[in-house]
Amino acid sequence: MQFIETRGNDTLKPASVPFSKAILSPSASFGGLYVPESLPKLDDTFLLDHIDSSYRDLAFDFLKLCDIDIPDDIISEALKRYERFDDSKNPVPMHKIEDDCYVSELYHGPTRAFKDMALQPFGYILSYLAKKHDQKYLIMAATSGDTGPATLETFKDATNITVGCLYPDGGTSDVQRLQMVTENAKNLHVFGVQGDFDDTQNALKALLASDEFNEAIATKDIKLSAANSVNFGRIIFQIIYHIYSYIKLLKNKEIKLGEKIYLVVPSGNFGNALGAYYAKKMGVYIEKILIASNQNNILTDWINKGEYDLTSRDLVQTISPAMDILKSSNVERILYDKFGSLRTKELMDDLAQKGGYALTNDELATLREDFDASYSTDEECIAVMAKYAKKGYIMDPHTATCVKSYEALKDEKAFAVIYSTAEWTKFSPVVAQALGKKFKKDLEAIDFIKEKTGLIPNETINSLFNKQIIHNKIIQKENIKKEMLSIL
Ligand SMILES: *Cc1c(COP(=O)(O)O)cnc(C)c1O
Questions:
Q1: Which end of the chain has the least Cβ crowding within 10 Å, N or C?
Q2: Ligand 1: nearest atom to the Cα of 107
Q3: Is the CB of 268 under 6 A from ligand 1?
Q4: Is the pLDDT of residue 248 over 90?
């Protein structure tokens, strides 16, 4: 698999790069992203041959088909990271919640949110490459809550890798903050920033663009990489569980081979949905990918009307903060795949300069061949969570945004798979509210939910509240550069 660039090539960068290059330096010409030049085909034999495979065997065979420049033994070791999940043989349990609907639970990893699905094996591969090239890398992350813990966890003690992680002080849940500030390893640096997530992210962008910072890392012979979903090293692992969903429904005799299913994806940066799109392109029988959003419903307008308009909106804080995003990075990879690099560059330039763009009617029709979209308000999500709690299934607020799309399918005779992206323990005050009582503190909410439902939080969550705080610096955004220079 070779990788090419979404906005075309500037003749300074190579015209195509192998997987290892695309993940070590993920920024492409003209501010674009790397995408696979071609995708392998998953035929019926591939699907049938894996009916009884473990998740890891399926993943290994899939990655072999992708023909990436990573040795087999390293791929195997990377996939062993799924042993850190609750059930090492089956890291992605699927739970039937309706006659024609399963929930695929992507949150059974070490930090209890779906970011582990990709960041765990990706972290292993990036660390391997850094060691092999004897090159030091700095990974900077600004997080609204889930990427930070998952990035720290995967790179803990990795040779040649330093992580600088910034979170908005007061802008994450207690559990998310504790997961970051109690991570104890020499190569991990965590800072709370006074301000909200936007302030934090903008301060990081300014830092990455600053000459002083780039000179400092160059003199120290350090390179920058990224662990967010602009990195294809994350996307590749997010294709696999969509293939697994189909195979699992086949195995459970819910569908026949060739029968099409719907996938419902709670979306922010569109990495999860992009993985579903690639799975569909490769041959998995998917009727449509349904994009679920919260009140920051820019993706709903993009898919239903062809409009991507930042000028008419401000970011709203919702109960599903991991989806509080307006500039959704992986949309660009869809634009490229559908309309080519010239048009992608044009649209992305319009987004940067004019704050938006509109697709033509033909383009919109092409987009809607694969996607449909809806959004839910916070009140609707709480009602959904309460409804399913009564039926004995507890879901987090991100997962709850998916149910409306599923319900709109009532007249279709097709199966749906909803992706659950976080465990209830990560957003316990909202879950408790859906169960009838409001709390400010996670610990109190967790106790209430335990009592009410009999659910027991994983030990990694329980132990957080007694762990020693390692990173206790709260900094002003003006001081980010100084602090980051001091960790190098
Ligand atoms: C990151 C995240 C999402 C959004 O996923 P994208 O791939 O960015 O669209 C949804 N839910 C949770 C809990 C997340 O952490």
A1: C
A2: 13
A3: yes
A4: yes
